[in-house]
Amino acid sequence: MASDNTTVKLDRVSKSFGEFTAVRDLSLDVRAGRVFGLLGPNGAGKTTTIRMIVNITAPDTGTILLFGRHIDSNLQDRIGYLPEERGLYKKMRVADQLRFFAEIKNLGGKEVDKRIDEWLARVKLSEWKNKRSMELSKGMQQKIQFITAVIHDPDLLILDEPFSGLDPVNVELLKEIVLDLKRAGKTIIFSTHQMEVAEKICDDICLLNRSQKVFEGSLREIKSSFGRNSVAVRCEGGDGVLDDPALVSKLVRHADEAQALLAAGADAQTLLKRLIASGAVIGKFEMVEPSLNDIFITKVTEPA
Amino acid sequence: MKKFLSVLKREYIQRVRAKMFIVSTILLPVVMSLFGLVPAIILSIETPPMRVAVVDQTGRMYSQIRQALFNDQQEPESQNANAGAPRTPPRRSFSRFVLEEVNATTQPLDQIRASLDQRMRARELDGYVILPPDFLSQGKAEFISRNAGDLFSPRVLQQAINRAAREQRLIDAKVDTKTRQELFKPVELQSVKAGADGGRQTDSSASFALVFGIGFVMYLAILMYGQIVLGAVIEEKETRIAEILFSSVKPFTLMMGKLVGVSLVALTQLAIWAAAFSVFALYGVGMLVSPEMRDNIPSIPLSHYIYFALFFLLGYFIYATIYALVGSMVTTAQEGGQLAMPIILILVVSFYLFWPVSRSPDSPFSFWVSMIPFSAPVAMLVRIVTQTPPFWQIALSLLIGFSTVFVIMWLASRIYRVGMLMYGKRASIPEAIRWARQA
């Protein structure tokens, strides 16, 4: 499904609010039919970037092209946007609500009723169709909000922290839907700081930090460029070795295993020898790719 | 346009369907009619007549007073007979007296006082009047009563004694009965507006009352619905829907949709009430309400009715948009309520312009206040019914007014959008100005 077409193209885009620069000189390409992860810590400029793409606010300088055209209100109808700040009309019934959100995307008529039923069935909320949204639990509301972003079958779907606050079952449910949409040829921009989720569904990522792009590219390339300098270890004893800064620059202990990031100049063989020499009982010793989380933390905490 | 209609439709249907709307629509006419009927019922409750003794030391006044009091009670009856509708004026029950004369010549005054006081204590008497011998020249009398809190009866009594004294003085001055009657014949002043064509005349006092009524309904509508417009504008901020909407709808479209939607709800409710009121007035208590009101449906030119409607809408929208503007600046309805206070003040001031404008409708002052959008609705209506200004002035006033509505809405939508981008912050006035300028 991947093609070389670019759905969204940002060219040297900047935006400031008064003294504060939210986005500086940002260029990026979101390719059609792929899941693009817009990652970064809080306040990095993710939301401002998205708002410029959906035409809520205009960039100070630079250009944004959507489907090869400058954004206008007709193009807005081809975007589905689920912002991080989202809500529902409390007293409106679910079906009325979904119909309204479809209507303001220029979709009306019988088709809407059909889609409302389909989508409610898909997120397992059919029996809530005629309830007021204030009667729904937070997780249910979130699924309804998700439908408001996809009911008009947009070509570009922008999701800002779509899974925050959902239980694992529902995260899995929505993730499947997102991947289905991708298979159907939709382009998806996915903004989050939950790296584990991004790692599982993104094809391409762009990391923003302090209003600027840190890197951009396909997830695979980025990971391989970071090399295999991480070791997953499960052992008894050998604590002194793992804590040696000459060998291990960073150690993250999980419940029953630890992840050791090798220090510059150290190699895994030396670490293994030292562990055996220290008399540790080794249950697992495996070279692993750095997780997106590690890359994220490394990049974000690097001095600018 | 389609999106505007979607916003409007949602706003309208959600509100009209709400329980609050249905309850208030039904309740208000009920409450209003209670306000109208209860006093009438209370006033018509018969109270026992007031027993008053008259100590007439002049020896000539008692019969005059009796006659004056008696005529006072008869007068409204005769008026009714003329109007052709039998009804009981509620006033009557308060001014009923039983008079008795106390012979002041046989006993000294102190003794009379003592015995009257005793009768009052025994509740055989409610009060007594002492007319001293020099009453006709000095004009001073004394009224002692059991119920000092009764403000009404002494006044009625005073008026009667007053008339009686005047009558008696004229009799003393040898003025004959016929002359006396002519002297007291009331004058009639008919207020008539000179028609534009010189021939046709319209009842200006009736159209004046109508303008006053329109102004009042406008005022009520603004008070009731301004707050709702404000709430509607804040709704998407409080529910955090604004950002989703702005990825689909322009802020101006959203604001206009909301304003017009809420306004249609207001008009729906007012129309229901107007219909209820007319039914009520024509069939229900038509007999209770003064019949003259029904006969005097004023002969107002059709064009005036159109102007009434236009300026009513203008007045409503001008103020409703200011509420929307306030709503765009604040984050909660509570803050909005505080900030909306000055609006009410402007409204009240513009309402008071009714009087200066009606006195000199053609003055430069009247011209300017009828051009300023905030005072135009009342001022221009007053001018129209008093001395209809040239058409271009009316048109200009409407043009300025409705343009102002759009400008305010445009401003509000800009402030709203920038405010949304900076969450949870209430705009100060300078900030709001800066936000409005920001792209």
Task: Compose a concise summary of this entry.
Chain A is an alpha/beta fold and 304 residues long.
How does this model look, in words?
The complex is a heterodimer of chains A (304) and B (439). Chain A is an alpha/beta fold. Helix content of chain A is 34%, strand content 30%. Chain A has helices at 46-53, 73-76, 94-103, 110-122, 138-150, 168-183, 195-201, 219-225, 239-242, 268-277, 292-301, and strands at 6-17, 20-31, 35-39, 61-66, 69-70, 79-82, 156-160, 187-192, 204-209, 212-218, 230-236, 248-253, 258-262, 281-288. In chain A, strands 6-7-8-3-9-10 form a 6-stranded mixed β-sheet, sandwiched between helices. In chain A, strand 4 and strand 5 (69-70) form a beta hairpin. In chain A, helix 3 runs parallel beside helix 5 (138-150). The model of chain A has no long low-confidence stretch (mean pLDDT 87). Chain B is mainly alpha-helical and 439 residues long. Chain B has helices at 2-17, 19-43, 62-83, 109-121, 135-138, 152-172, 177-183, 204-238, 242-246, 251-284, 291-295, 302-329, 333-352, 354-359, 364-369, 376-386, 391-421, 429-437, and strands spanning 50-56, 97-102, 127-131, 142-145, 193-194, 201-202. In chain B, helix 10 crosses helix 17. Mean pLDDT of chain B is 79; it is low at 74-94 and 196-201. The interface between A and B is medium-sized, with 32 and 25 residues.
- If helices are DSSP runs of H or I spanning 4 or more residues, what is the number of helices of chain A? 11
Number of helices of chain B: 18
Provide the helix percentage of chain B. Answer: 55-70%
Radius of gyration of chain B equals 31 Å
Which stretches of chain A of 5+ consecutive residues score pLDDT under 50? none
Report the sheet-strand fraction of chain A. 25-35%
Written as H for each helix and E for each strand, in order along the chain, the element string of chain A is EEEHEEHEHHHEHEHEEHEHEEHEH
What would you report as the Rg of chain A, rounded to the nearest angstrom? 23 Å
**Biggest interface between chains:** A-B, 32 and 25 residues
Shape of chain A: globular
From N to C, what is the helix and strand string of chain B? Answer: HHEHEHEHEHHEEHHHHHHHHHHH
How confident overall, as mean pLDDT of chain A? 87
Q: How many angstroms separate the termini of chain A?
A: 37 Å
Assembly type: heterodimer
- Helix coverage percent of residues of chain A? 25-40%
